[in-house]
Write a structure and sequence with these properties.
By secondary structure, the chain is an alpha+beta fold. The chain has eleven helices and 19 strands. Strands 12-3-14-13 form a four-stranded mixed sheet. A three-stranded antiparallel sheet has the order 15-18-19. Strands 1-2 form a two-stranded antiparallel sheet.
Length: about 425
């Protein structure tokens, strides 16, 4: 095993290969607070990439209801349990959250799936701790949809009390997922054929099917279960991040980097995708006016999904503000409290940047804010609130303006002549 630096863990860790980092890395932010589980992203991906024979069970993009839902079923519970078995009660974080870009969430003192595999798995070719889901676990992508959790330890009974922030007693939320195109992919590390690789131009993780022999080591190793086996071809397949769109070779893109199908189809405006610059050690290079850099490293409202796995996922989530914090800390790490506090009480810049989500299908490389007038002044939960109708301007790879939008969204009144007017 080599030693690589994982800034999400705040330390070095073991990985089967030396670290190699693209100049720019494909990454994305999902705002869970906005997701309505319409499944537009799911079906956009399905109708584009996995509609053929042998792909019936393949949902590269899916939206699952937490805490009970998952595709495959209980994927996260099972890998968390395996890690706890190899390191009983040792999966802990130390230190504190900070503004240090090399360890913003403190330091993870437990074992990653690579370190646990190194200590417990035999033979040596088994490099990553994981498991193969059963066929039944792949059967129901929408299992437990909209099922809330109620009183702890009591089945089929919800709380009698009304709910209010900051934490609901009866709750669920939607978790949209695609391949995280990790900096240290478990699928890549586990493949004995070296059929999986990260593209040097954007860090997208792809699978060379001519090299794959269907050993399913990638399926076993990926903790997010986003590599899937196709029985009729006997090779594995996975999300390709719609790379022709990202690289600007899709006919619709007109040569400019474009968001993936699942991103562009999102009607809830929960998604933003981008290409972030990396340093030579895999940490994010400072890029203050990049919207993803701002959300992850400046506002710190967007957090990685299960960073303790050690893969350094490039998918980030703004956590739901009504869910018990203990559950969210397990899922998104120690930065949860700070992220929710900031999201609940956004400053002027954060309000503007949040308007960039899904205003265009082009990838944003830089933004600027043009200050506007004060449009609201009041209090919210005992705090003073001022909202300004600022204009936020998005720019593409070529430096040209993509679009501009305002904080105060326009109100359109439907003319009374229409049949369904009130």
């Amino acid at each position: 095993m080599s030693r690589v630096y994982n800034w999400q863990l705040g330390r070095e860790m073991s990985y089967p290969y030396d670290g190699k980092y693209p100049e720019r890395q494909f990454a994305f932010v999902f705002n869970i607070n906005r997701c309505i589980a319409c499944q537009s992203c799911t079906m956009a991906c399905k109708s584009t990439w996995t509609f053929s024979k042998g792909q019936e069970h393949m949902w590269w993009a899916n939206v699952e209801t937490k805490p009970y839902g998952g595709y495959p079923q209980f994927w996260d519970v099972k890998i968390l349990d395996l890690l706890n078995q190899t390191n009983p009660d040792g999966q802990r974080w130390t230190g504190s959250v900070s503004d240090n870009g090399k360890s913003p969430y403190g330091q993870f003192s437990g074992q990653t799936i690579f370190e646990a595999g190194e200590k417990t798995l035999q033979p040596q070719s088994a490099r990553v701790l994981g498991y193969l889901p059963s066929d039944e676990e792949w059967n129901s992508p929408n299992i437990y949809e909209d099922n809330p959790v109620g009183k702890r330890g009591i089945r089929d009974k919800l709380h009698e009390t009304g709910e209010q922030l900051p934490v609901h007693n009866t709750w669920f939320f939607y978790l949209a997922r695609i391949c995280n195109h990790c900096t240290y992919p478990a699928c890549l590390g586990a493949c004995p054929r070296k059929a999986i690789y990260k593209r040097p131009e954007d860090g997208i993780v792809l699978l060379d099917q001519s090299e794959c022999r269907g050993y399913r080591k990638c399926v076993e190793a990926c903790p997010y279960k986003k590599t899937m086996y196709r029985g009729n071809t006997r090779v594995s397949e996975k999300c390709v991040a719609c790379y022709p769109r990202v690289e600007g070779t899709d006919p619709e893109s007109e040569g400019q980097p474009m968001e993936t199908r699942c991103m562009a189809a999102c009607i809830g405006q929960i998604r933003m995708q981008g290409l972030v610059r990396l340093n030579s050690d895999g940490t994010w290079a400072e890029d203050r006016q990049h919207p993803l850099y701002y959300l992850v490293h400046v506002a710190k409202v967007a957090l990685p999904l299960y960073p303790q796995f050690g893969t350094s996922p490039n998918g980030y989530y703004i956590p739901p503000r009504w869910v018990p914090r203990e559950y969210l800390r397990q899922m998104f790490g120690p930065g949860v409290d700070r992220a929710i506090e900031r999201y609940n009480n956004p400053d002027r810049e954060l309000l503007a940047v949040l308007q960039l989500f899904r205003r265009s299908n082009r990838i944003i490389f830089r933004y600027e804010i043009k200050e506007g007038p004060l449009v609201y002044e009041g209090t919210y939960r005992g705090r003073p609130v001022r909202i300004y109708n600022d204009t936020v301007i998005a720019f593409g790879k070529n430096g040209k303006e993509l679009f501009r939008t305002t904080v105060e969204e326009p109100l359109h009144v439907r003319p009374a002549k229409h049949q369904n007017s009130i």
